[in-house]
Amino acid sequence: MNLFGTGNAEKKRQPNVAGISNSLGIDLGTLNTVIAKPSGDKFDLYQIPSVVAVKKEDATSVLAVGEEAKLMLGRTPEDIIALRPLKKGVIESVAQAQALLVKAMEIGIKKGESVGRIVIGIPGDASEVEKQAAEKIGLKAGADYVLVISEGLAAAIGAGLPIAEPDGTMVVDIGAGSTDLVVISLGGITDIETVRYGGDDIDNNIVDIVKEKYNVGIGIHDAEAAKIKVGMIHCSEDLEILTTEVIGKSAETNRPKKIIIDSVLVADAAEPVMKQIIDGLNLVLERLSPELITGVFNNSVAVGGSSQLRGLRERICDELSVPVTISEDPMTVVAKGAAIVAAEPRALEPEVRLKAMK
Ligand SMILES: Nc1ncnc2c1ncn2[C@@H]1O[C@H](COP(=O)(O)OP(=O)(O)OP(=O)(O)O)[C@@H](O)[C@H]1O
Ligand SMILES: [Mg+2]
Q1: 24 and 118 assigned to the same domain
Q2: Is the CB of 150 under 6 A from ligand 1?
C-alpha cells in the first residue's frame, strides 16, 4: 500500500462561483492577507503583507497598509511604527486590522461599486469576542454582510474536500504564527486543536542557531528567505541537502560575514515547531472516533505557507501513519474557501452561520 496516497483529496469538487459579483473571501493571516474574488468559475487572487504603518503617538492614524507598510518595517523614522495587527493568528490591534480589511476590500472591489458579502477566515479556536470583533471590523470597513468562518473549514472547502460527508476529513494549516488542526464531518467542525507555532518560530530559531554556531547575527528576513530556499523537516526520507549563502554581522569584528545555511540547520530550527505540531496531531487522533479515522486517512490536506517544507508530509506519515496531501495552492486555499462561502447564498442562513464556526 502506498501510505502517501495519490493526492486525490484536492480533486473532488470544483466550486460553482459563476455569476456572483462583489463577494469576497479574505484570509486575514499573521503574515499575509489573501483576497479571493469569484470570477466566472475561477478566482481573482490578491495578496498583501499583513502590515500597517501608524503614527507612534496615535496608533489609529494609519499611514500605509500592505506592501508600502512592509517596506517600513524596521526602517521607520522615529515617529512612525510599522506593525502587524495579528499575532499568532489572532487580531491584536483592532484599528489596524480594520485598516487591513479596508485595503483588502479596496483591492477586491472596484471603486464606486458597493461591497457585498465578505467572508473572513479566522482561527478556529477564536473566542466569541474575537469572532464578533472580526465581524464588526468587516462591517465598519464597509461590507453589507460579514460572516466569519474557521480558517480550517474555509481551507477544506477551498481544497474541495468532501466536508458534507459523514466520514471526516482533516486540515493541517501551518501558517506563520500558528497551526490549526481541524477535523470536519457533516459540514461542521468536529474537533480542533490550535498550536501557537508556525513559520515565524522557525525563522527565529534559525537566527538563534546561526548566532550560537557562528557568532553572527542575521536578519529575520534573511532567515526566512534561507528557510524557503533550502528548508526541510527531519524525516525518514533521504532528502537532498541544499545550501545558501547569507550575509550577517560578526559579533566579534562587527564586520559583514558570509555564512552558509544548509537544509540540516533549517530542519534543526524547525524541529521544536514540528514536535509541537506532532503533539497536537496526536491529541486530535487520540480524540478521533473510529467512525472518522477512514475519512481522515483518505482525505487529509496540509495547507498554509509552512506546509511547503520538504519532508513535512513524510514526517507526519512516519510518526502518525496519516498520509496528508500537500495543497497545490497552500497560501490561497483559505481565501478561496471563504470566497466560495461568500458566493453561496445559503451562507446567509443561520444554521450555516452556526456551522461555520464551532
Ligand atoms: N516555500 C516555502 N517553504 C517553507 N515555508 C514557506 C514557504 N513559503 C512561505 N513559507 C512560510 O509560510 C508562512 C506564511 O504562510 P501563510 O501565508 O499561510 O501564513 P499566515 O496565514 O499569514 O499565518 P497564520 O495562518 O499563522 O495567521 C511564513 O512563515 C513563510 O515563511
Ligand atoms: Mg493562515
Answers
A1: yes
A2: no
